[in-house]
Every structure is written in C-alpha cells, then in structure tokens.
Amino acid sequence: MWVIRFALALLFGALVILIDLPLHLITWLIEKNQPGSCTRFRHDYARFGMKGIWFLAGGDETVIGLEKVPTDRPVLFVGNHRSIFDILLAGSLIDYPVGFVAKKELRDTPIRIIMEEIHCLFLDREDPRQGLKTILTAIEYVKQGVSMFIFPEGTRCKVEGTFLPFHAGSFKIATKAKVPVVPVTIVNTGDLFEDHYPRLKKVPVVIEFGDPIETADMDRNAQKELPDRVKAIMEETYKKNAKLIGISKE
User: Fold this and answer.
1) Domain residue limits, the chain
2) Cα separation of 116 and 175, whole Å?
3) Where does residue 44 rank: exposed (0-12), middle (13-18), buried (19+ CB within 10 A)?
4) Which helix (H) or strand (E) holds 121?
5) Strands 121-123, 98-103: parallel, antiparallel or unpaired by DSSP?
6) What is the pLDDT of residue 59?
7) pLDDT tens digits for range 26-42
8) Whole-angstrom Cα distance, residue 49 to residue 68?
9) For residues 135 and 105, what is the distance between their CA atoms, to the nearest angstrom?
10) Which among 38, 166, 209, 236 is least buried, having the fewest CB atoms inside 10 angstroms?
11) β-strands 181-187, 98-103: how paired?
12) 173 close to 198: Cβ distance less than 8 angstroms
C-alpha cells in the first residue's frame, strides 16, 4: 500500500511541476505590466501542490492554534524540523503568502522555480557571508508584507522528541522587521518517512501554532533571550502533544 501512495505522491508532484512551467511564463508576462498581481495565485498554486502531496503520502494531521496567527500583518513562523514533510504540512495550512528558508541543496532540484515564485530562500549553512545575505533578504520580504517560515535548528533533527540548538540569526528576521514570532511545533513527521526510508507510513502528526510573540518593542536583552525562550515553549508543547498521540516516552 505504501508503494502506491509513494508513486501517487511522486506522480502528483511531477504534474504540479510540469503544469507550473507554462504558468510561470504566463504569470511572468502578466507581472511585467502589473508587478505583484500574481503573488497570491502563485502561492495558492504551491499550496495546492503541497496539500495534494501531503494527502497522497498519507498525512494525518491534528492542527492546533492556527486561529491564533495574525492575518493582518506578516509574521515569522519558527518551527522544529524532523522531515521534508514539515514544509509540505505547514505550507498546506497557511492560506496566505509565506516563504520558507530552505537548505541550499533544494536550489538544484526541479522544485526550485516554484519555491522561488513563493519567496523561498536557499540558505548556505557553510558560508556565513551568504547566510547573512539570505537573512537580510528575508527581512526585506517581511517588510514588504510576506510572512517567512524558518527552521532555526538549521537542519533536520534525527532523533524524535529532541531539538537541536536554535541559531540566533534566524530570529533577526523578526526583530529587525519588528514582526511577531509564531512558534510552530511539529510532532512525529519523522515517523512518516525518514525513520524508515524509503517506506511511507501513515502515522498521526500534530502541528501546533503557538501564541505570537511580539518583537517590536523588545530590548537587546529580550532579543538575546528570544531563541531560548521560543525553544523552551516548543519543547513543552512537543511533550504535551506527544502524549496526545501516544508517542511520549514519559
């Protein structure tokens, strides 16, 4: 059964990419005369693709707290990272323009065009100067009204229930643009795919959007403490939701 789901998800993803090629040309031509007019359409199309792949792969999610996310201004979503499906799940749920900060390796894949269309950025973790440039671009996107989503661990964590250290630079996107940080805690996506690669497994997943943390009036000390503060919130949220689906080790 998992082989069928895997094949259907791959086929659907390939179709989304193929259809996007003429759409990319059409929207590019339209935006030459009307800049920004196709932003919402491009994001909606990408969201459609993410929802389809997530569904076909067997995603079974419980969503908590999405109603807390401000919709009248951009925010910085900050999530823990266990699986390639984290982006698909989060992107399928956020129904307005949001770009993701992703690893640079994705720039060399067929999904690059779609990702760039929706303001995704590719972070080179080995090059501090290039990494800073990426963060500065993300700040500009947010100032222009586009929310961003970043995984401050910098890479996928291999062990379920644990968190890697959060990189403080990720939070500058929020503090420099003076927008709220929304913690996004994702539980059990690793068991969907990575923990038994290449087999897909239908498992319960929980994603919780936490209370927005305002950064506009934060002093330097509060900004310095922000990564640890968010990490602590997400760790507690993870423990709570792991018990909800019965994977807690406690």
Assistant:
1) 60-244
2) 24
3) middle
4) strand 121-123
5) parallel
6) 86
7) 999 999 899 889 999 99
8) 25
9) 17
10) 236
11) unpaired
12) no
Q: Which tokens is 118 given?
A: 């929706």
Query: How many other C-beta atoms lie within 10 A of the C-beta of residue 144?
Result: 12
Name the 3-class secondary structure at 240: helix
DSSP H helical ranges for the chain: 2-33, 39-57, 85-93, 112-117, 128-143, 172-177, 220-244
pLDDT digits (tens, 9 = 90+) for 58-111: 888 999 999 999 999 999 999 999 999 999 999 999 999 999 999 888 888 889
pLDDT at 105: 87
Name the packing angle between helices 39-57 and 85-93 (round to 10°).
130
State the pTM of this model. Answer: 0.94
Task: Dig out the tokens for 212 from the structure.
Answer: 């927005």
CATH of domain 60-244: 3.40.1130.10
Residue 193 corresponds to which tokens in the numbers above?
């795919």
**DSSP letter at 166?**
P
Cis peptide bond prior to 198, omega within 30° of 0: yes
**Which of 73, 93, 44 minimizes the C-alpha distance to 181?**
73
Q: Coil, strand or helix: which one is 169?
A: helix
Give the per-residue pLDDT at 106: 86
Closest to 209 (Cα-Cα) out of 177, 161, 241: 241
Residue in the block written with tokens 């807690």:
248
Whole-number CA gyration radius for the chain: 18
